[in-house]
Amino acid sequence: MVCLIAANTSRALAKHYVIPIFTPEDAFFGVTQENRVAQGVQTHRQGREINAANGSLTRNMAESGSRAGKTDERADTGASSGLAGLQGLIERAGEKRRGPAPVEKWEPDYCGELDMEIRRDGTWFYMGTPIGRQALVDLFATVLRKDEDGETYLVTPVEKIRIRVEDAHFIAVEMNVTGEGDTQVMTFRTNVGDVIKAGPEHPLTFVAEGDHGGVKPYLRVRGRLDALLARSVMYELVEHGEEAWIDGKTMFAVRSNGVLFPIMPVDELERLAAQ
Questions:
Q1: Cys-Cys link to 198, which of 13, 83, 235, 256 (CB 3.0-4.6 A)?
Q2: The architecture CATH gives domain 59-165
């Protein structure tokens, strides 16, 4: 578990504010009232190491197939002829090219549900087994679409197949910040290779969870598809936070591409810090 110290440009907030964060690695990175601040300081010291560890998330996912041995082979080959068939269809449709497919323009017939799930940590499963081939995961990610019904589908020009998503569709595993103030831009990389600049078309949202002050951070990637920020990424993000007057409240917020994204009211942060 971890709590994150939220710092503004003057670093004054770093001495007082702690934000409990929900992330892919754990359901809730909160601590008891007695050690909340101490845990936050310890996490601050370990931040660089955490960033380095999480930066290899994509490689670890790709390597998981070889560790799984024959069980994983079943998910990619022989026993998954339906999956292989779908892969072939996507490739024949021309979606093997780099970048997402124009799925918003396609309206194929609904063809049922595939036993495929994107877990909370970003791992893709087929028939209960992790898909170990990162290239295959990347390919399927190019044809993802979330519709108005709240369901997520794999969409090609001729098929629309529903899959399950436990939380977000992707994980933001890396972040880069350029500029300062109004010119600051936050750029994120997802576990399937998307590179997204947060801004008007790709907003950051911070969803409050329950009564214990938890926050789940999301980035809009495209359409209705979101990425959940990894712990190390969220930690880095709050280091660029600032106080701002938004909609009649003083908020702790971050800035990117000329847009302020509120995380939490400052008075709520003060309440958490006082616990």
A1: 256
A2: Roll (3.10)
Strand 152-155 and strand 170-178: the pairing is unpaired
Q: Classify strands 124-126 and 129-130 as parallel, antiparallel or unpaired.
A: antiparallel
Which residue blocks in 80-212 are alpha helix, DSSP H? 81-92, 134-141
**Residue-wise pLDDT tens digits, 228-241:** 999 999 999 989 99
**Backbone φ and ψ of 166, nearest 5°:** -70, -40
271: phi then psi, degrees, rounded to nearest 5: -65, -45
User: In sequence order, which ranges of the chain are alpha helices (DSSP H)?
Assistant: 36-55, 57-68, 70-76, 81-92, 134-141, 231-238, 266-274
- CA 76 from chain center: how many Å? 25
- Provide the 3-class DSSP secondary structure of residue 40: helix
Residue 44 CA to residue 77 CA, distance in Å, equals: 44
pLDDT tens digits for 202-250?
Answer: 999 999 876 666 789 999 999 999 999 999 999 999 899 999 998 888 9
State how beta strands 225-229 and 170-178 pair. Answer: parallel
Average per-residue pLDDT in the chain?
73
CA distance 148 to 273: 39
Whether the full predicted model's pTM is greater than 0.85, yes or no, is no
Structural domain boundaries in the chain: 3-55+202-217+231-274, 59-165
Q: What would you report as the CA-atom Rg of the chain, rounded to the nearest whole angstrom?
A: 20
Q: Which amino acid is at 11?
A: R
- Can you state the percent helix, strand and coil of the chain, rounding each to 5? 30, 35, 30
